[in-house]
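Researcher: Re-running this chain for the archive, since the previous output was lost when a drive failed. Same request as before.
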Amino acid sequence: MHAWPASEVPALPGQGRDLRIHDTATGGLVSLDPGPVARIYVCGITPYDATHIGHAATYNAFDLVQRVWLDTKRQVHYVQNVTDVDDPLLERAERDGVDWVALAEKETALFREDMTALRMLPPRHYIGAVEAIPGIVPLVERLRDAGAAYELEGDVYFSVESDPNFGRVSGLDAAAMRLLSAERGGDPDRPGKKNPLDPMLWMAAREGEPSWDGGSLGRGRPGWHIECVAIALDHLGMGFDVQGGGSDLAFPHHEMGASHAQVLTGEFPMAQAYVHAGMVALDGEKMSKSRGNLVFVSKLRQDGVDPAAIRLTLLAHHYRADWEWTDQVLVDAEARLGRWRAAVSRPDGPPAEALVEEIREALGNDLDAPAALAAVDRWAALQQEHGGTDIGAPGVVSRAVDALLGVAL
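Model: Regenerated structure tokens:
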């Protein structure tokens, strides 16, 4: 599966800051010190209805992570998956009377278009669950053969008790985990499971649903969590720098994935930091496909909204914050974009070197994009009120905003 084209990232003078970021597993800020190649895995979409603002907010957060690392002169090895076979996709295809493969391809293509428009840097590897199945099957077989998985009516489940570190990603107790498991795709009440929290690794073939050859597992399809584990281990290995996604993935998805990988390899942890973006609401409720309260990036673009304004709307909120989409937040972003573009349209202006360092400092401190925007606002206000004599300063600002915030002025 191919990703989307990369926008050019301007090189800036000086040196970027190393990143301190909130780690869900420890509950506090951690200082990341990747090697020459920083490694990040971000969980991708299930392509049955893309791309809403909640998606865009999540991918914007991890785009900032990449940009901070690139500014330190590191390379970035970014991997993202596409869950292109799963119950919600099959259910939507049946509801709409369309082929599930065609639906997945259509929505993935739209997602690529939206990511390109928003100047999100693409992953080096963009892998679909279906194409990963040949690598998933041996992992499930290894877990089963090691006694860390068991069969139940043809399905294969992972035993969470096989991982002594289970629970260290989310920090939740068993009661909270059970509630979230039921809400987020698990089946804690299924009779016969060794532990209600045990997640499915391989689902035996169901009549009328797609299935693949699973070797000794029989025909079927992979569970949700093992998909990302297989892709991440194949392309990044253990101990990569950041595992990213929305806050609703901390449990069960990232918790279970970490346990799968840790039992498979005997190493801990799977990732150095588990980083989670906040949720976006509309009309007082979390924006989600199940509720149908979605604002789509493609619809905004069709209505003539500048993608740079959409991105500024996202940047105006700290990535870990839950916030609500309103018409006003977009109006504010469009006004800000207009002020910034007017400020950089002049041939000279106030000195820009300190501004570049302010942006770097803000982003290095847990991706504080609102603080970075406020710094650019102050420079733009000085430009409007007093102008300046620094030839080329507007160009420096324009390149810095592009390189570090992904906004083209």
